[in-house]
Design goal:
homodimer; 334 residues; alpha/beta; Quinone Oxidoreductase, Chain A, domain 1; Rossmann fold; six-stranded parallel β-sheet; 9 helices
Chain lengths: 334, 334
């Protein structure tokens, strides 16, 4: 029987998750049931939405229970298939991989990948959930017009880096907010027109005003918190804020976020603040994937990855992503 | 020379305006300049937006300066006309009446009223700014669908009462939030399906949940503050909040409003929060006025007024409206 070191949830994190919230157990490799695939994990994805699942509070994603195998997106090779849709050797992507070297996946949730079209792990990044989120949040919710300024927080992250490049491709004016000078510099190299290191900027409202001399028309907010406030204070009349993520709240997840509220400013600017979840756009995934794949193959989309090695590294990779210590799409390579 | 007791701004209010912020001076009646009308004031309107003008802070409406004549909407009879558009005896409405018995109005900002079509003061209420605001905020920004629940704060006020009745006419499900049992009862009588007295309800979130068993699809927010929070916590997926006014903040107008922020809830529900200003819909006023006038003449729109008497009463009428002590559209009759 194959050894299968598996991460389970030991307890619900309070605030920022810690390594002690997870437990590594040597479990036997699972057996594929009817309609399932047994898959050898090649890549695991850690993403901000997973923080919300580690909570007893009601949320949009089904919660993760104590003692359960940690779940997340992954790419792997089919070992055994109980489905006519897949054969051993196929490379697939699915959203419900366990954090383990061998996992089972329901065949009807898996997507076959073509390793010749793009590196398979891009299905977890620029051609997958973060890329699709960037595409729809920017184009379908933010709806910038040509020449408008699009401010993006977590700008070098999995979603931000794609949003910034789509904004460049489409003729908008993307401006980056990121957590280090190196990230800001890289953002400039992929087409962001200006950038702010929020850790050293001092007065964020003034820093955004300098980086966005024509104001902010669309703000893709991956963070919430003080960056949201500072962006709102620079928002143009009829500006739009797309609430894509709240990773700045990861360390106080189950507490209310107390701070200044800006309803008068929203009124005066006739701003629109709108929440975004990718699933709402499922009917248009194929079209977005076509665009993203074409841009990638034409060399228009750079996809920077931050790769942790080995199943042991999964919780730490997740935590550093929540802390913004990753530089690019955070992956775990097995 | 005619006596003309005139209210001027004595100082900028801090928090809730007080009678001492205004000064009554006996000025001579003004003289109409080129293109102007001399008007005998019949009705003055006091409205929440005027609070924002009494501030040195930058705002959407041009500010009122210390020592200047207080300005607001009014209805009056033309005494002298320096414009071919109007004759003495015409009854007009304009947005820039002084708080004084005789005032001058630029002819190109005045609208002639037909006293046979509707009582002339309705041009300050259901057929004027509050009515138009209710119409566009509800139908063009909130955009409810048939059967959806529309929650309205300050529900018996100038704007709220019209919004609730439009919602009833259009087949939505309007629910009132108001500040007394009598107001709630009257709201029910004009077509609101349920009502909440926010001063006695206790837990507002629970009270809204009881009054809106199917959740809230559209919230017309005239108040901000705790009512906004409680409504947001009852908002359905894809719910919409239209920020029409922030009168609950009138007593701490120039301070930040500190409290819980709900970006995660906005994300999870994919809610939309959008600011509203009437002026943006100017191109469609004629169409809205046609609808509102037709409904009024068919007896479908009740227009409740709260009338203070005499020019001396103007500041007090303004203050009681900001405090929510009015019951219906607050007017001053001269």
């Amino acid at each position: 029987m194959t050894s299968n070191p598996t991460w389970t949830l030991k307890r619900f994190p309070t605030g920022m998750p810690a390594p002690e919230d997870f437990s590594l157990e040597d479990r036997p490799a699972p057996v594929a049931g009817p309609g399932e695939l047994l898959v050898r994990t090649l890549w695991l994805s850690v993403d901000p939405y997973m923080r919300a699942r580690l909570s007893p509070a009601k949320n949009y994603a089904a919660g993760q229970q104590i003692g359960e195998v940690m779940q997340g997106g992954g790419v792997g090779e089919v070992v055994t298939s109980n489905s006519p849709l897949f054969r051993p050797g196929d490379i697939i992507q699915a959203d419900d991989f366990g954090w383990q070297p061998y996992t089972t996946v329901a065949a009807d949730t898996a997507m076959r990948l073509d390793p010749d079209a793009a590196p398979v792990q891009t299905s977890l990044g620029c051609l997958g959930m973060p890329g699709l989120s960037a595409y729809f949040a920017l184009l379908n919710v933010g709806r910038p017009k040509a020449g408008e300024t699009v401010l993006i927080s977590a700008a070098s992250g999995a979603l931000g880096q794609i949003a910034g490049q789509i904004a460049r491709i489409k003729g908008f004016n993307p401006v980056a907010i990121a957590g280090s000078d190196a990230k800001v510099e890289w953002c400039r190299s992929i087409g962001y027109q200006a950038g702010i290191n929020h850790r050293t900027a001092g007065d964020l409202t003034a820093a955004i005003a300098r980086a966005c001399p024509d104001g902010v028309d669309v703000f893709l907010d991956n963070t919430a918190g003080p960056l949201h406030d500072a962006a709102l204070l620079n928002l143009n009349t009829f500006g739009r804020i797309v609430v894509v993520g709240t990773v700045a709240l990861a360390d106080r997840f189950d507490q209310p976020d107390i701070g200044p509220r800006f309803l008068r400013r929203i009124l005066v600017t006739r701003a629109r603040i709108e929440g975004f979840l990718l699933n709402d756009f499922e009917a248009h995934y194929a079209e977005a994937r076509r665009d993203l794949t074409a841009w990638y193959q034409q060399g228009l989309l750079e996809a920077r990855e931050d790769v942790a090695e080995g199943i042991e590294a999964a919780p730490q990779a997740f935590i550093r992503m929540l802390k913004g210590e990753n530089f690019g799409k955070q992956l775990v390579k097995l």
